[in-house]
Specification:
Number of domains: 1
Number of strands: 10
Radius of gyration: 17 Å
CATH topology: Rossmann fold
CATH class: Alpha Beta
Helix content: 40-55%
Shape: globular
Strand content: 15-25%
Strand order of the largest sheet: 2-8-1-9-10
Distance between the termini: 17 Å
Structural class: alpha/beta
Amino acid sequence: MIIAIDGLAGSGKSSTSKLVAKKLGFCHFSTGKMYRALTCFLINNNYYINNNFLNDKLSLDEINILVEGINFNEIKINGIDYSKNLYTDEINNRISHISSIKEIRTKMVKIQRDISLNRNIVCEGRDIGTVVFPNAEFKFYFKADLKSRTDRRFLENKKNNVKIPKSILREMIRSRDYKDLNRLESPLKKAKDAILVVTTNKTINQQVNFICDRVKGK
């Protein structure tokens, strides 16, 4: 079974997905972490020069992405571990661009589908219910107001030792929203058959219980 959870940045989909997976005994799969890992790889291997992305240098056939671990938390690219330190300012600033490149999304979707074959998975991202798993048994779409999402992401960054003032973080999220919702390739949008979950005034436990109850048919 596949449970697809899509949503805006900071809407609570990651924290909720992990707890839903744990409660149901499913695997948790964050596709966003794959894009962060690849963004980190491209930065470290000089695909950006003076803020310009060297698209001509990009050869995806030469980039081997291996996703391992119980919850697919271990990501190796060309044999090097890119599983940690994925929330730096530079990655945050580059990831929207990297994730908008058609060839990259095509490669990622294939990997994501291969990984998920014959598994029970809670998969979260931005195009899970619309592109990656359009036939998922359950689909949910998370949204919340900008203030609550900024507060959530601020606390998340604090746990990861990332220090970004709230005012700047709010504008970063606003910018990410615009890019995610308006990109040409796999834009973020609610699947027609997805259940809308407005998380502005919901606790994590309420979100988890809501999804688990739906899956269990309560």
